[in-house]
Automatic annotation (TrEMBL):
Residue ranges of every copy of the UvrD-like helicase ATP-binding domain listed in the record: 10-290
GO terms for MF: 3'-5' DNA helicase activity; ATP binding; ATP hydrolysis activity; DNA binding
Protein name: DNA 3'-5' helicase
Keywords from the named record: ATP-binding, Helicase, Hydrolase, Isomerase, Nucleotide-binding
Protein species of origin: Amycolatopsis rhizosphaerae
InterPro entries, per database record: DExx_box_DNA_helicase_dom_sf, DNA_helicase_UvrD-like_C, DNA_helicase_UvrD/REP, HRDC-like_sf, HRDC_dom, HRDC_dom_sf, P-loop_NTPase, UvrD-like_ATP-bd
Family annotation (SMART domains): HRDC
Keyword ATP-binding: yes
UvrD-like helicase C-terminal domain: residues covered: 291-539
List of residues binding ATP: A31, G32, A33, G34, T35, G36, K37, T38
Keyword set includes ATP-binding: yes
Class of enzymatic activity (EC top level): isomerase
GO BP annotations listed: recombinational repair
Pfam families: HRDC (PF00570), UvrD-helicase (PF00580), UvrD_C (PF13361)
Length: 650
């Protein structure tokens, strides 16, 4: 339509544009990482609003992590869109429930449950199970899986068997814990995260007038990362739609990383079956990453097994050439963290912004070593980025103190007042040395920086004005900027991008995680997680691992199986030893299962990776010998063989 300012659709390629300008109704974009799915939907929203098809307030866009929702809001703002909601499923449900609860239940909405494990512990105790933290965590994730999968305690044993759940107790016991947990929680009148979705769905399904009001208000629904939708979220989405079809979904089956929690890409893959008239678009140009990163990403996902039809897309890089991805092996984790920190330092010195660098890991427990190393190297970092900034305990405390102070503002200037209010909350003169305390301090400092910004830009802004600004930001979950290198889990990194990405801890037992071993589906999910990590990088990509956890520890860890076949040709380990050249006539076969071997590492081991093998010990001994002789040949210590030795100062 002529009402479009040329700039809006100019930024899209023909396929993206087709999805952006499709008339209202079902639209599905099925495409790989970095192909512009999120860009397409934000442009589509802007286009629909600008061309008068829908009012901004009628749009509800949802995704799965707070960071990704924040990213969507940032992009919408950049397109000049104000008033369209972009939230996580949970945040959207929470708002709706708060709004409708007084009318439906006639009371103040129940609070959100804090300390879930404590409640699960009480439930486990009632059932006579152990209450060790690991058991409680596993029980809690079983309950979460069941609720997200719309499985009741009664249905749990059958459903868990069908889904091959690996629970810490018998199915009947888990069902008992689930039942007891629900009872204790309801008794305490609190809601867990899944309840937000369950109750909102129930309100919309059971209260016609509420549903009508809601559906009058929201008319256009958009879901990013649709491959990770759970049955519960899908049911909520259906309740929102109420039989209408104004739904745009985008996703990448290869980035399904929550199936352990009940998510499934099936609704994405079956979208056209449900909406035969849908506009379907596939994208394959990768605008995010250099061809070097794209090539690696294609290899990673090309090795995936049992890929559903519709997921076999190849990314085609669009950007100019960049540096090759780099691989580095370290003796132990602190050495790895120090190596990464010194590399980060070099990037910063070369002018890369800290906010353009991320260190990504499999489990949050890994962050501590990296926090320490970055702090030692004098590198600013933030562990959770913008995620739930206003939900952090110290920020909540700060807000309470600031609100109280603003009711009776002191006669001092706007920065001094904020500083003095925040001092008792933990804003000391000098920053703490590092770790979580430093992170808290940085968060508080960012509140002071906001005050400074306000004092510089708004004349006569006082504490009241400042608190009003903060409240507004809190409502939008738009944190004051904290500049720093992002430390995040791979799960939390989904949908985001950085100029430089460090994927760390790529060792067996960490990625893939220990408990995935021996479970094909779980291994494939770990591989997709790795793919998500690789595809976050625009330009620089470092992949590293270490052979032991602690300095001086036994170097018994092996690098991740997902690295097989990825290491560059000159890498000694990636070479096919003489005499074992792959000949076209006789393809080497796995000695365990007889299947074809796909890369040099598998050939060297004589079996395909992941194949349960009793030959490991013998093969590993052979490999070790081979490594040592190569090391002697190259005149380097045995464990440096695999790295480009000049690459990292180890
Ligand atoms: P993911 O699967 O990781 O969520 P995505 O498909 O949502 O990725 P986007 O984040 O939308 O991809 O886009 C990746 C990057 O490529 C962004 O920086 C985006 O601005 C850029 N990009 C997308 N499409 C284009 C285009 N047509 N021209 C230029 N840049 C583009
Ligand atoms: Mg995206």
């Amino acid at each position: 339509p002529t009402s479009d300012r040329p700039s809006l659709l100019d930024g899209l390629d023909p396929e993206q544009r087709a999805a952006a300008i499709a008339p209202r109704g079902p639209v599905c974009v099925l495409a790989g990482a970095g192909t512009g799915k999120t860009r397409t939907i934000t442009h589509r929203i802007a286009h629909l609003i600008r061309s008068g098809h829908v009012a901004a307030g009628q749009v509800l866009a949802v995704t799965f992590t707070a960071r990704a929702a924040g990213e969507m809001r940032t992009r919408l703002r950049a397109l000049g869109v104000e008033g369209a909601q972009a939230l996580t499923f949970h945040a959207a449900a929470r708002r709706q429930l708060r709004y409708f609860w007084p009318r439906v239940v006639g009371d103040r909405p129940w609070d959100l449950l804090e300390g879930k494990l404590r409640l699960v512990g009480q439930a486990a105790h009632r059932v006579g199970l152990g209450t060790e933290p690991e058991i409680l965590r596993d029980l809690a994730s079983e309950v979460e899986w069941a609720k997200a999968s719309l499985v009741t305690p009664e249905d749990y044993p059958v459903a868990a068997a069908r889904a091959q759940r690996d629970a810490p107790a018998s199915p009947a016991q888990v069902a008992e814990v689930y039942r007891a947990y629900e009872a204790i929680k309801n008794n305490a009148q609190v809601l867990d995260f899944d309840d937000l979705l369950l109750h909102t769905t129930a309100v919309l399904e059971e209260h016609g007038e509420v549903a009508r009001e809601f559906r009058d208000r929201y008319r256009c629904f958009v879901v990013d990362e649709y491959q990770d939708v759970t049955p519960l979220q899908q049911r909520l989405l259906d309740a929102w739609l109420g039989g209408r079809d104004d739904l745009t979904v985008v996703g990448d089956v290869n980035q399904t990383i929550y199936s352990f929690g009940g998510a499934s890409p099936r609704p994405l893959l079956e979208f056209t079956r449900r909406f035969p008239e849908a506009t379907v678009v596939r994208l394959e140009r990768d605008y995010r990453s250099t061809p070097q990163v794209v090539a690696l990403a294609n290899k990673v996902i090309g090795a995936a097994r049992n890929r559903p039809a519709g997921s076999r897309l190849r990314l085609v890089g669009q950007r100019p050439d960049g540096p090759e991805p780099r691989f580095a092996e370290f003796d132990d984790e602190p050495a790895e963290a120090t190596g990464v920190a010194s590399r980060v330092r070099q990037l910063l010195d070369a002018g890369v912004a800290a906010s353009e660098i991320a260190v990504l890991y499999r489990v949050n427990a890994q962050s501590e070593t990296y926090e320490q190393a970055l702090a030692d190297a004098g590198v600013p970092y933030l562990v959770r980025g913008g995620e739930r900034f206003f939900d952090r305990r110290e920020i909540r405390q700060a807000m309470i103190s600031l609100r109280t102070a603003a009711a009776d503002p002191p006669p001092t200037e706007l920065v001094t007042a904020v500083r003095s209010v925040l001092a008792p909350v933990g804003l000391t003169e000098q920053p703490p040395a590092g770790g979580a305390a430093k992170e808290r301090w940085d968060g508080l400092l960012s509140l002071v920086e906001l005050a400074e910004e306000l004092a510089a830009t708004v004349k006569g802004a006082d504490l009241r004005r400042y608190v009003a600004e903060l409240e507004q930001r809190a409502a939008a979950q738009h944190p004051p900027t904290v500049e720093g290198v992002t430390l995040a889990s791979l799960h939390a990194a989904k949908g985001l991008e950085w100029d430089a990405v460090f994927l760390v801890g790529l060792a067996e037992g960490t990625l893939p995680i220990q408990h995935a071993d021996g479970d094909d589906n779980a291994i494939e999910e770990e591989r997709r997680l790795f793919y998500v990590g690789v595809t976050r990088a625009r330009e620089h990509l470092w992949l590293s691992w270490s052979l032991s956890r602690h300095p001086g520890g036994r170097r018994h860890r092996r690098r991740s199986r997902f690295l097989y076949g990825l290491l560059p040709e000159q890498h000694p380990d990636a070479r096919v030893p003489r005499g074992q050249q792959i000949s076209k006539a006789a393809k080497p076969r796995c000695r365990v299962c007889g299947g074809p071997l796909r890369d040099t590492m598998e050939i060297k081991l004589g079996r395909c990776d992941g194949c349960p093998s009793t030959l490991d010990e013998e093969l590993l001994a052979r490999l070790k010998n081979w490594r040592s002789s190569r090391a002697r040949e190259l005149k380097v210590p045995p464990f440096v063989v695999f790295t480009d030795a000049t690459l990292l100062a180890i």
